[in-house]
Design goal:
By secondary structure, the protein is mainly α. It is built from seven helices and six strands. Residues 86-103, 250-261 form the Tyrosinase copper-binding domain.
Length: 335
């Protein structure tokens, strides 16, 4: 099994755009349905992409660098908090909140729809043929040729992000062209490691009845496999943007984590008692990563978001029908 170990006090809620102010969502009576990219209309896809491109051009909130954009802020925040948001129970609620913050940024750019997801379970047999790679109504395809420096994979040559130049590699300034390096498979392995997120493989993950057991299988299995499949080609040393801790460099990150969030939602829906199921231990302090495990997690734990958005509390991001979120997904549909 593949594993990824991606290596403030809150601003006032009013710092978020008033149109998406979390405090204004008092109830959730009509949750919005998040769609699979492949089942969205062409118009819906193009509207999403237009807003996603807008985020790559909007001014930075963090102001860490003169060339930074709002999109760069997402990559920097994810990398900055890397150790605190992976390989422990908080992985799922933190990324649920992070995708919602991105959805709000899309709204700032005029988008009227919801966050979407890449249904890589449905695409697992032929993941390189997925609609997400379409050069017009998708995110463009694999990196090609040369033209990127250092350890970066070849740049993406088509689609709406072919001219996008992410600023960061992890938290280091290292501007480069958006890059991908698909793993084409070998032997019985499917392209993009699709054999690790087939319906059968994901069903085995969903069968775990404990929260942290499920989280561990999902994070280290299908989730990690998609990251590596898109960004780490077999026999090639250079890596694409979807693998380092600055993996939100690739706008596809948010569709990938939309699917991770959907699988958590499906797992929660299987038993009412799972809505607030949350267990496990914090990671040891980053200053002593090999030390003893941290204390048990609780629903009152903080979800840090740096200066990108107000910090959250785990309990507010457990139920997607809460006032903070108010959305749902299609149920399991692969039998």
């Amino acid at each position: 099994m593949l594993f990824i170990h991606f290596t403030f006090l809150a601003a006032a809620v009013s710092a978020l755009p008033s149109s998406t102010n979390l405090a204004a969502r008092q109830t959730c009576t009509s949750p919005r349905l998040r769609k699979s990219w492949s089942k969205a209309t062409v118009e819906e896809r193009l509207a999403y992409l237009e807003a996603a491109v807008c985020i790559t051009k909007k001014p930075s909130r963090l102001n860490k660098h003169k060339d930074a954009t709002l999109h760069d802020d997402f990559a920097y925040t994810h990398a900055l908090l890397n150790y605190d948001i992976h390989s422990f129970a908080g992985f799922l609620p933190w990324h649920r909140y992070f995708v919602m913050v991105y959805e709000q940024a899309l709204e700032e750019c005029g988008y009227k729809g919801t966050a979407m997801y890449w249904d890589w379970v449905a695409d697992s047999d032929n993941a390189t043929l997925s609609a997400v790679w379409d050069p017009v109504t998708g995110f463009g395809g694999n990196g090609q040729g040369t033209g990127n420096h250092g350890n970066h994979a070849p740049p993406v040559q088509d689609g709406p992000f072919k001219d996008f130049r992410p600023l960061y590699s992890e938290t280091n300034v290292d501007q480069h062209r958006l890059c991908r390096n698909w793993n084409r498979g070998f032997g019985d392995n499917k392209e993009l490691f699709g054999h690790r997120y087939t319906p059968q493989a994901v069903s085995e993950v969903l069968a775990d009845t404990t929260y942290d057991g499920f989280r561990d299988l999902l994070e280290g299995g299908p989730h990690a496999s998609v990251h590596f499949g898109v960004a780490v080609g077999s026999g090639v040393g250079k890596i694409g943007d979807l693998v380092p801790s600055s993996s939100p460099n690739d706008p596809l990150f948010f569709l990938h984590h939309g699917m991770v969030d959907r699988l958590w939602w499906i797992w929660q829906q299987a038993d009412e008692s799972r809505t607030n199921a949350y267990d496990g231990f914090h990671r040891p302090p980053q200053s002593n990563p090999g030390g003893p495990q941290g204390p048990p997690v609780t629903l009152d734990d903080i979800l840090p978001m740096g200066d990108l958005a107000p910090e959250g509390i785990v309990r507010d991001y457990m139920d997607t029908r809460s006032a903070h979120l108010c959305y749902e997904y299609p149920k399991w549909e692969y039998d």
